[in-house]
Amino acid sequence: MKHKRIDMDKLKRSFDTKRILLAVAMTLALPALILCQTNGKNAKKGGDEQAVRQTLDELVAALRNNDTAPLDRIYADDYTFVGDTGMMMTKAQRIAAFKSGDLKYESISHEVVSIHLFGDTAVAITRYTTKFAPGIKFSDGKFLTTLTFVKIKGRWQLVAAHNTRTGE
After folding, report:
1. 6: pLDDT confidence band, cut at 50, 70 and 90?
2. CATH code for the structural domain at 9-165
3. What is the DSSP string of 50-116?
């Protein structure tokens, strides 16, 4: 059996060429991989922001229609509302006030100022303009409201809200 002599210089050049090609391939592929991961996160973030906006729209529709069924779904079980006077209401108290007629909107509109996402938590800042039904003890007005949502079992629920009356 005849052995073939190996040219070490040629083998080294071949190995160096393969290493360079591998490094170039990795350098070209890395930005694409990073971009894919970033786009996936942005898509999720965009989807979550849209879902929070949708929940806000459903909330305002329920408040406008004095409809407690959607409120029961949107408010988390430990929901707390803090009004502009410092008055606090739980989910049960707020829904009971709607059912009894002690709390009833004649009109309500909102504008989303911003939504900030922190994993499964979202903080929304909104401007509300409200007009209560005649005879209701609450005052009409314009409010800046901070709403905190948490994604619970795949659904965004409102856990806290705080109103501040604006001077507008």
Report:
1. low
2. 3.10.450.50
3. HHHHHHHHHHHHHHHTT-HHHHHHHEEEEEEEE-TTS-EEEHHHHHHHHHHTSS-EEEEEEEEEEEE
